[in-house]
Specification:
alpha/beta, six-stranded mixed beta sheet, 5 helices
Length: 174
Amino acid sequence: MDFLVDVLEFAPHKGLLTAFRHSGKSTVVGIFAACVLYVRPNTRILILSAETTLANRMVNHIRNILENHPLCVDMIPKNKKEWASGRITINRDVGIREPSVICQGIHGNITGSRADLIICDDVEVPNTCNTAQKREMLRERLRELDFILSPHGAIVYIGTPHTTDTIYRTNEQD
């Protein structure tokens, strides 16, 4: 968890967490995201995955933590209009347009979004990296995240490499 806190706190505010499949990467990062919301309730988090359904699983994990942890009781809104599939808005200052947590597939529309923390969870999977052209398209899409990230925001990449020319082996995240 110290690694994730360091990514959030210190420049360049970008980090990469890779490990084998089913090692709990997404679970740990989901807990981290819930902790960030607890400590900094105005944080806007964007979860990006290869597919929206995968990103939605991370949002559901974060929601489950917030709903079940005794310290988070006051964060849950009475009106759960924004407590829907794929998005969470906790109790926080008024005037923040974006949800607290929102998810999207890597090829979904994120134009006009803003985020303080972007979590790229399993963006490299067989159907997004099985050709050189797909890997280049994925790299290009990930470069666009700099336009969504707030000035002192952070990006965390988590996943398992699926090819020798993995996107995780580049300096694109630096």
